[in-house]
Write a structure and sequence with these properties.
Layout: H1 2-7, H2 19-29, H3 31-58, E1 61-62, E2 71-72, H4 76-83, H5 85-116, H6 123-135, H7 138-148, H8 155-162, H9 179-204, H10 208-216, H11 221-232, H12 234-248, H13 253-258, H14 270-280, H15 284-314
Antiparallel strand pairs: 1-2
Helix pairs in contact: 4-15, 5-9, 5-12, 5-14, 6-9, 12-15, 14-15
């Protein structure tokens, strides 16, 4: 660029490469690319960017969706969260789901990945079968599992009765003590396949030289797992851990289809409570405040992940 500038006429100015002018110059030069992605940009702007900004505006107002008037209430909606027992219960239920669903899903995903990382016959078939629940829509999975848990003719009760494990049918989704564990089990089944794929990618990035050296030193399979595999999967494990926590805070489809927040509110999570306030009680202002409270919780975990990743990259 310097040589071109020296040989060019005095009136020549090299194109900007930094700052806003540089960005605008590159956008103008590659304008055809933006034409192709413009439909996605428009949809994202309308349904995501505008929605985020408008919901933040609504969180400072009291507004029933059936009433055009929006009454400004300041921070009252956020103050209501502090005294709302149902919101506190929803937070507890969400944390309960997270504490059990996240480690169980990761454990099953890692176990299956370790098995399928070996040389097996029909390896591709088994990988596809374990991954299939992940690409099945949550609504479909929830309907299937609601049938499995059905008290009168569900598959789970049928087989447990045949094996003599239970003496009478169990109402899995109607029992306050069993509803959330039942949803957690369904979520593990649906999510383990996706984590398996990511764990497999991490396992295959580990050099075989480490394992060969460990075998020479007499390390058995368990020792190789503890001292080689798990430490070298550190980045993959932490990534899945944080993203799984963020995803667990957004759980909604399973709750909506399988229990509708019951019984006795034992499965009402933050996401379902937000839906209830917004679309069943039409309290859009308070629902927006709930949404931003949930966003603040997820944002904390996102910051932890970004801080950890920056330390891993630049250390």
């Amino acid at each position: 660029m310097a040589a071109v500038a020296q040989n060019a006429p005095p009136s020549y100015r090299p194109p900007p490469t930094k700052g806003i002018r540089g960005v605008l110059y590159r956008m103008r030069k590659e304008w055809t690319s933006y034409v192709f992605i413009s439909p996605s940009i428009i949809l994202f702007s309308i349904f995501t960017v505008f929605g985020v900004i408008y919901s933040f505006y609504l969180s400072f107002h009291k507004w029933n969706i059936l009433d055009p008037e929006k009454v400004y209430v300041g921070l009252d909606n956020y103050a209501r969260l502090l005294g709302d027992e149902r919101f506190h219960r929803a937070v507890f239920n969400t944390l309960y789901y997270t504490v059990f669903a996240v480690p169980l899903t990761m454990g099953v995903g890692l176990s299956v990945a370790l098995l399928l990382n070996n040389k097996l016959r029909m390896q591709g078939f088994f990988r596809a079968m374990y991954y299939l629940p992940t690409i099945t829509p949550f609504v479909v999975s929830a309907i299937i599992w609601k049938w499995v848990y059905q008290g009168d003719y569900g598959l789970l009760n049928y087989y447990l009765l045949q094996l003599g494990i239970i003496q009478k049918p169990v109402l899995w989704l109607s029992d306050p003590n069993l509803a959330m564990p039942a949803i957690i089990l369904m979520s593990v089944w649906a999510g383990a396949g996706g984590q398996m794929v990511i764990f497999l990618a991490g396992l295959q990035s580990i050099s075989e030289e480490y394992y060969d050296a460990a075998k020479v030193d007499g390390a058995n399979a368990f020792q190789r797992l503890i001292y080689i595999t798990i430490p070298l999967l550190n980045t993959t494990t932490f990534f899945l851990f944080i993203t799984s926590i963020i995803g667990s805070f957004q759980i909604f489809a399973q709750i909506y289809i399988m229990t509708s927040g019951g019984p006795l509110g034992r499965t009402t999570t933050i996401g379902y409570y937000l839906y209830e306030r917004a679309f069943l009680r039409f309290d859009m202002g308070y629902a927006s405040a709930i949404g931003y409270a949930m966003f603040a919780m997820m944002f904390v975990f996102t910051l932890i992940y970004l801080r950890w990743m920056s330390r891993e990259i630049y250390s």
